[in-house]
């Protein structure tokens, strides 16, 4: 009985893999052709296209899995029936109901495994693929800006390119309600820490200005990554308060004087 189940499962897997390869190839070809129009636009190059396609493979597998399962089962068990192997199996005392139950159990196990792995891997990689594409195309929307109120800072990100890429950032440092310094950066990218580039620091207290090429900032000292990700994916209020200091406690004359 177990040998027959294993044999049927091998046939099932063979048919499924054949159908999966064909359907996935068609899907990826169509996706590649649809992306060709972006080649040469901004920073969208062939390597970006390849990265984008590869990262979308898990999502494509997840999407076409039911069709591959159906076509694969038709190929596998059609082949078994064509070679009269069903009759040979039934001659060993295994009825048609038992054969159907074996097929259903195998289908259920494969579908459960696919659903688990698909939901675990596909969404994250698809999101990363979209970020890479948007970053290469330098897509930004003027309405996608963000103000964040920290403990002693107010941060303004004028352009959210992706959840991990911001441009035109202004950070206002406040001490006892007074504006002490302003830092601006042309862009910031997230990878465990925020890396700010092309920085200008205006030290109001000491009346001096400092330029820096780059600066690493911890997430707790910047806008939390999850807030930016939420802002990038859906609408949330433009002004967010992450600290205990209220805007009304800021010394307004200081702002008027230095801004």
Poorly predicted ranges (pLDDT <50, ≥5 residues)? 235-259
How many strand units? 7
Q: What is the CA–CA distance across the termini? A: 82 Å
Strand order of the largest sheet: 6-5-4-3-2-1-7
Helix content: 40-55%
Rg calc: 28 Å
Q: What is the helix/strand order?
A: HHHHHEEEEEEHEH
What's the rounded overall pLDDT mean? 80
The number of domains is 2
Largest sheet: 7 strands, mixed
Class by SSE composition = alpha+beta
What is the overall number of helices? 7
Q: What proportion of the residues form beta strands (DSSP E)?
A: 15-25%
Shape: elongated
Oligomeric composition of the shown chains: single chain
What can you tell me about this protein's structure?
This protein is α+β, with helices and mostly antiparallel strands. It folds into two domains: 2-136, no CATH class; 146-258, no CATH class. It contains seven helices and seven strands. A hairpin with a 2-residue loop joins strand 3 (165-175) and strand 4. Mean pLDDT is 80; it is low at 235-259.
Top keywords for this entry?
51% helix; seven-stranded mixed beta sheet; disordered C terminus; 7 strands; 259 residues; alpha+beta; elongated
Briefly summarize what is shown:
By secondary structure, the chain is α+β, with helices and mostly antiparallel strands.
Give the SSE layout.
Blueprint: H1 2-35, H2 46-55, H3 57-82, H4 85-90, H5 96-136, E1 146-149, E2 153-162, E3 165-175, E4 178-191, E5 193-203, E6 208-217, H6 225-233, E7 239-241, H7 252-258
Parallel strand pairs: 1-7
Antiparallel strand pairs: 1-2, 2-3, 3-4, 4-5, 5-6
